[in-house]
Design brief:
Elements (H helix, E strand, L loop, with lengths): L12 H6 L44 E4 L3 E17 L2 E14 L3 H11 L9 E12 L5 E3 L2 E6 L4 E2 L5 E3 L4 E3 L4 E10 L9 E6 L2 E3 L5 E3 L5 E4 L2
Antiparallel strand pairs: 1-2, 2-3, 3-4, 4-10, 5-9, 5-12, 6-7, 6-11, 8-10, 11-14, 12-13
């Protein structure tokens, strides 16, 4: 378990660049997460297009230039807002987004492939999913969430931390009686993007932060469906 507490330090700049707005009123450590999840609306759009200069991509068709990845366009969004509990800890799945990402050069494409542990060469554009979620600790003591183990598509394609999945919540420590907002990103095969109707999420356990023993078992797998 202890090794999982170190996973966040190994996440690439790519994840930091795409997750910079999942702030939490209960946990100040989450202030620097996802640029697609910021809530600032002032001057967020340019006057001549659907380009978003700052703030979240909130409507299908909106896009922004990401320094690490290139042009990111929102092509699908769906609210989830469902909470699941394991002992005294809650996971709330908030929403689902899908992005079309067009790198401006091979370096950006290669960086993305390396960061996600892609087993195949990325297309241009390529496609990412994002699920925003929160971790709530209802106890007085800090707890570590060991993350999302895998996400499986309707056609059976599995994304996990070694192949196609970047989970900012893996190894996250949540203070007593606090809530931490976070997100998980995954690569979707080009031929799956138009038929992505559901995803199954497999969770890991919760651990005590003192000795990394199990504080609560993993949640049962959750399947979310989209319109």
């Amino acid at each position: 378990m202890k090794t999982k507490s170190l996973v966040l330090s190994g996440l690439t700049i790519l994840l930091a660049s795409t997750l910079t707005g999942c702030s939490s009123s209960s946990d100040s450590s989450s202030k620097n997460s996802d640029s697609h999840v910021k809530t600032s609306q002032k001057n967020r759009k340019s006057s001549s297009s659907k380009e978003v200069k700052s703030g979240q991509l909130a409507k299908v068709g909106e896009w922004q230039n990401d320094m690490m990845q290139g042009k990111m366009k929102l092509i699908k969004i769906s609210k989830i807002n469902k909470t699941y509990s394991s002992n005294e800890y809650d996971i709330t799945l908030k929403n689902f987004k899908m992005f079309e990402v067009t790198p401006k050069d091979n370096e950006q494409k290669e960086n993305a492939a390396s960061s996600f542990g892609a087993t195949e060469e990325l297309t241009s554009p390529y496609y990412e999913i994002q699920i925003q979620y929160s971790i709530k600790n209802n106890t007085d003591n800090a707890v570590q969430f060991n993350g999302i183990k895998s996400i499986v598509t309707a056609s059976g394609t599995q994304m996990d931390p070694s192949s196609g999945l970047q989970d900012q919540g893996m190894g996250a420590e949540v203070a007593g009686n606090a809530t931490k907002d976070t997100a998980v990103m995954g690569l979707i095969k080009t031929d799956e993007k138009s038929k992505l109707s559901k995803l199954t999420i497999n969770f890991d356990t919760f651990a005590n932060t003192t000795d990394f023993s199990e504080a609560a078992p993993s949640l049962d797998p959750v399947t979310i469906e989209f319109n």
